[in-house]
Amino acid sequence: MAFRVLVIEDNVDGADTLGLVLRQYGFEVRVAYNGPDGVEAAQADPPDAVLCDIAMPGMDGFAVAERLGKVLPRRPLLVAVTACQEQTLLGPAARAGFDHYFLKPADPAEVGGLLASYADQPAG
After folding, report:
1. Could you give the residue ranges of the DSSP H alpha helices within 8-107?
2. How confident is the model over 75-104, as pLDDT tens digits?
């Protein structure tokens, strides 16, 4: 079964481009363009990994991570992908449950490599 990735990003072009690139790496990818739609998509079909923007209007990435932790039967790999370069966000990102943090524009090879390393691990 393919490693399932959910991209949650309010920049439509950025979300679609990241999704396209990740599909080329062999991942099954879904895209949501805001926090509430991302949480709904994750509940409908829980992903193995979530790549989520932090600074989104309405429900930001921190709120998405918190909500996912409450509504999903198992915790996916959570990866922040954001333009926020402030080091002060690293602590809150970790506390919100993010496992990794990439600055935009994220290097597709690095993101793909990270996801592949998790995809290769036995389910558990």
Report:
1. 12-24, 35-44, 61-71, 90-96
2. 999 999 887 766 556 666 767 788 998 888
